[in-house]
Amino acid sequence: MNDRIKGPIALTLICSAVCALLAGAHLLTDDRIRDTEAVRLQQALSEAFGEGQYTALNVKYDGISQVIRDDSDRLIFDLVSSGYEKGSQHLLIGISDGAVSKVHLVSISDSPTQAAAVSEPDFLDQFTGWTDPDSDYDAVSGATKSSEGIRQAVARALRTYYENREITDDA
Amino acid sequence: MMRKTKSVSLWQEFSKGILRENPNLVGLLGICPVLAITQEARNALGMGIATTFVLICSNAVISMLRKVIPQTVKLSAYIVIIAGFVTLTQFLLHGYAPELYSALGTFLSLITVNCIILGRAEVFAGKNGVFRSVLDGAGMGIGFTLSLLLVSSFREIIGSGTWFGIPLTGEYKVALLRSAPGGFFALGCIIALVSALLRKKPPEGIGCNGCPNADTCAASKGGCSR
Shortest CB distance from B84 goes to which of A7, A21, A108? Predict the structure, then answer.
C-alpha cells in the first residue's frame, strides 16, 4: 500500500487506540479524582475561612465553578483561572460587604517556583479590600502570568458579585 | 545503520543507562526537569518514577509497532503514544497521589517533550525487539531517577538542611542551592564527579578537529574544511 495512504491510516488507528486507553483510564480514575478534589476543597475552605458550615448555592455563573456561603453570610467564589497553563489555578475568593476579604490558592500547577512565588501571603493579601475589579496590583517578577491569572480570578469574582448581587443575596 | 543487538547482553542493555550512558549525567539530555524539580528529593523521586513508567511503556509499544508505523508519520505516532502514557500517568497521580501531582505541576505534562523519551524511541525502540526495548527504557529511567535523586539530595541537604523532609543540618544551609543558579551548580558538580568516575577524557581538539561529525560535514557543500 502507498505510504501516503498507509501513514494517515496508521496514525488514525494509533490515535484511536490511545483515545480508548485514556477513556478507560478516565472512567477508572474519575470518581477518585472527584473525591480527592472534594476533600481538598473542604480542607482549603477550613484552612482559609475557618471551621464551620459551608453551603453551596444553587446558582450558576460563567467562569465560576460554584458559589459557597459560610456561617457569617460571606460569599466564597470557587473558580479556576489560567496562569502559564490553561486552567492551572484553582482559587477560593471570599467577598463580604462588597469587598474581597480573602484570596486562597487551593492548587496551582504552574512551575513550582512560580507557584511558590504567588502563594506568598505578601502577594495574595494585596487583593484584600478590593472593591474595584480594575484596581492596580503588583505582579511577582518571574511569575507574571501566574500573577495575572490570580488578578483575573479576583476581578471575575468581584464582577460576578456586583452583577448578580441580589440573586446571590437571595439564593 | 542497524544496531547489532546480539553482541550486547541483556544485563548490559539494562545497565548501560544507569551510569555508563546515563541520559542526564553523560548524555546531558532532559536537563530542564533536573533543574526545575530538584529542590526536594521527594518530588524528584516522584518525577523519576513517572518518567520511568512512561519510558518503559512507550518503548514497549513503539517497539511492538515499529514494523507497522510508516516512516512518514513515525515522529507524530511516537509523540501520540508518549503523550497518551503521560496523560495516563497524570490521571493516576491526580487520583492516587494528589500532593505529588500538585508539586510536579506543569512539568508532569512536559514529560511528553522530554528528549530522553523521544530519543530512546527513535534510537532504540524503533529498531529493536520489545524485551530489549523494555530493558533499555527501565535502565534509562532508573539512570534518570538516580541523577534526579543525586542532584535533589545535594540541593535539599545543603540548601534546605533536610532530606525527604527530614531535618538534618538545622540552621546551617546555603539558600543559593534552592534557586535556579544553585541547580546549575549542583548539576555541574555531579556531572564532574561522574566524569571523574568514568575517567572521561576531554575532547582532543576544539572546533572542526574535535567535532565527531567533521568528516560528514567536510564532505557536504558549505561544510567545514579540515
Answer: A21
Give a yes or no: residue A27 inside a domain. no
Indicate the SS3 state at residue A102.
strand
Q: Do A11 and B76 touch (CB under 8 A)?
A: yes
A167 touches chain B (CB under 8 A): no
Residue-wise pLDDT tens digits, B111-164: 998 889 999 999 999 999 999 999 999 999 999 999 999 999 999 999 888 899
Query: Which contacts qualify for B96-101: CB closer than 8 Å, 24 or more apart?
Result: B96/A29, B96/A32, B97/B46, B98/A36, B98/A40, B100/B42, B100/B43, B100/B46, B101/A109
Reported pTM? 0.77
* Domain ranges across chain B: 10-219
The DSSP code for A80 is E
Residues of chain A found within 8 Å of residue B102, distances taken between Cβ atoms: 107-109
Q: Look at chain A and report how many structural domains it folds into.
A: 1
Q: How far apart are CA A88 and CA A146, in angstroms?
A: 9
Of B101 and B221, the one with more pLDDT = B101
Residues in a beta bridge with A67 = A77
Interchain CB contact of A121 with B (< 8 Å): no
> Is B75 near chain A, with CB under 8 Å?
no
User: Under 8 Å CB-to-CB from A22, ≥6 apart: which residues?
Assistant: B84, B87, B88, B91
Q: Domain limits at A88? A: 55-170
Contact B73 A7 (CB under 8 A): yes
CB atoms within 10 A of CB A50: 10
Do residue A14 and residue B87 have CB atoms under 8 angstroms apart? no
B42/B166 Cα distance (integer angstroms): 11
Alpha helices in B161-213 (DSSP H): 180-197
Average pLDDT over residues A118-136: 93
